[in-house]
From TrEMBL:
<dbReference type="Pfam" id="PF14497">
    <property type="entry name" value="GST_C_3"/>
</dbReference>
<keyword id="KW-0808">Transferase</keyword>
<comment type="function">
    <text>Conjugation of reduced glutathione to a wide number of exogenous and endogenous hydrophobic electrophiles.</text>
</comment>
<comment type="similarity">
    <text>Belongs to the GST superfamily. Mu family.</text>
</comment>
<dbReference type="GO" id="GO:0006749">
    <property type="term" value="P:glutathione metabolic process"/>
</dbReference>
<feature type="domain" description="GST C-terminal">
    <location>
        <begin position="162"/>
        <end position="298"/>
    </location>
</feature>
<dbReference type="InterPro" id="IPR040079">
    <property type="entry name" value="Glutathione_S-Trfase"/>
</dbReference>
<feature type="domain" description="GST N-terminal">
    <location>
        <begin position="83"/>
        <end position="160"/>
    </location>
</feature>
<comment type="similarity">
    <text>Belongs to the GST superfamily. Pi family.</text>
</comment>
<dbReference type="Pfam" id="PF02798">
    <property type="entry name" value="GST_N"/>
</dbReference>
<dbReference type="InterPro" id="IPR050213">
    <property type="entry name" value="GST_superfamily"/>
</dbReference>
<dbReference type="InterPro" id="IPR010987">
    <property type="entry name" value="Glutathione-S-Trfase_C-like"/>
</dbReference>
<protein>
    <recommendedName>
        <fullName>glutathione transferase</fullName>
        <ecNumber>2.5.1.18</ecNumber>
    </recommendedName>
</protein>
<dbReference type="InterPro" id="IPR004046">
    <property type="entry name" value="GST_C"/>
</dbReference>
<dbReference type="InterPro" id="IPR003082">
    <property type="entry name" value="GST_pi"/>
</dbReference>
<dbReference type="InterPro" id="IPR036282">
    <property type="entry name" value="Glutathione-S-Trfase_C_sf"/>
</dbReference>
<dbReference type="GO" id="GO:0004364">
    <property type="term" value="F:glutathione transferase activity"/>
</dbReference>
Length: 304
């Protein structure tokens, strides 16, 4: 171990100093190393002080949005792909429509590949639940429509601007799913034969307090009004002031009901129809809705 001389010995004179350095050949290196470490330590301490000062002086909203507990940016969830996302589905709008709306509303494009039922069932390695749609986006290959929608929401920044907004988006997505399940029963099992009873249970504002399985159009009307009263969206957004997955999902479910219950919707829910019109005019969505890329068939049995 290197024995460092006392300060007095270092001051004993030029010749003594040279003799000392000759006797301690590693002294210069050791002193240089110590000096370098001291400078590094000082730099690290100063950087921490400056960073802490900036953080504590920043607005509370900035600190919340950039804290580790807040919602992470889209880049944390996916890697950018140079190819357009590919939606693999049957030749109907169905459960793929919200995905398409999310993509085009974000200024991106999608590729559509049709699959038939037999081919889908023949490839469980690609369709582990035996269902479509399926999305391929770069290295990401996934199924389950609601998982795909949330992935696209993270990718395109449509999942809320804070954790609280993300929770609200998820709540509305689940509410739409509850109503969609009732709608699909009306279309595929009842084949519209029970549409009057359906409207009574899930559309008529007077029935909202009856048992409805959490599926009623009035719930969405109330949520839209609540966000407007909170200063968000002016009746054109369900969560905050920006476009989210919640808006696209509600747009789609309202669109499906307008096709069957146009007069009733106009009388009972002018607010939802106004919201529907506003979403229809958004850049990307407006062009998509007017293009042949929007499939004419809504459901697989040509009803609805």
């Amino acid at each position: 171990m290197l024995a460092l001389p006392s300060l007095g010995r270092l001051r004993s004179g030029e010749r003594g100093g040279r003799d000392l350095l000759r006797n301690q050949p590693n002294l210069l290196g050791a002193l240089h190393f110590m000096s370098l470490n001291m400078r590094i330590a000082t730099t690290v301490i100063n950087a921490r002080v400056v960073r802490r000062a900036i953080w504590t002086s920043a607005p509370a909203g900035f600190r919340h949005c950039h804290s580790r507990s807040s919602v992470q940016p889209a880049a944390a969830y996916h890697q950018q792909s140079t190819m357009a996302p590919k939606i693999i589905y049957f030749p109907v709008r169905g459960r793929a429509e919200v995905m398409k709306l999310a993509i085009v509303a974000s200024g991106d494009d999608f590729e559509l590949e049709q699959v038939n039922f037999q081919d889908m069932k023949a490839h469980p390695e690609l369709y582990p639940f035996g269902q479509c749609p399926r999305l391929v986006d770069g290295d990401n290959d996934m199924v389950q429509s609601n998982a795909i929608i949330r992935y696209l929401g993270r990718k395109y920044g449509l999942y809320g601007k804070s954790e609280k907004e993300t929770i609200a988006v998820d709540e509305i997505l689940e509410g739409v799913e509850s109503l969609r399940c009732k709608y699909l029963t009306l279309i595929y099992q009842d084949q519209l034969a029970t549409k009057d009873a359906y409207w009574t249970s899930h559309g008529d504002p007077a029935s909202v307090d009856s048992r409805n399985g959490g599926a009623h159009l009035l719930y969405f009307s109330r949520l839209l009004a609540r966000n407007k009263e909170a200063g968000g969206g002016g009746g054109k957004a369900f969560v905050g002031s920006g476009l989210t997955l919640a808006d696209l999902a509600v747009y789609d479910i309202v669109d499906l009901h307008v096709r069957i219950f146009g007069d009733q919707m106009q009388a009972a829910y002018p607010d939802l129809l106004s919201f529907h019109s506003a979403i229809s005019e958004l850049p990307g969505i407006k062009d998509y809705l007017a293009s042949p890329r929007r499939l004419a068939a809504v459901n697989g049995n040509n009803l609805g």
